[in-house]
Design goal:
The chain has about 60 residues and is an all-alpha fold. Helix content is about 85%, strand content about 0%. It has three helices and no strands. The chain has helices at about 5-30, 35-55, 60-64. The N and C termini lie far apart (about 35 Å).
Length: about 60
């Protein structure tokens, strides 16, 4: 196996662990929020994170 494949396996495993661990806490503390408000917040924060990381890594050509 090559290095990139191993890196991908590690990152996929770490992402699953991260979401499994913090996801429990996340859903516990957002039970009072409505469904629509939750979706809107997640869309806005995802867009914000996308723009910041695209700017940070200078990947605007890939973005557009």
């Amino acid at each position: 196996m090559n290095k990139e494949f191993n890196k991908g396996l590690f990152l996929a495993g770490f992402g699953s662990f991260w979401w499994g661990f913090f996801g429990v806490l996340y859903f516990k503390y957002i039970t009072f929020i409505g469904h629509v408000e939750l979706v809107v917040h997640r869309c806005l924060w995802t867009t914000f994170t996308l723009v910041i990381t695209t700017f940070f890594f200078s990947k605007w050509r890939c973005f557009f």
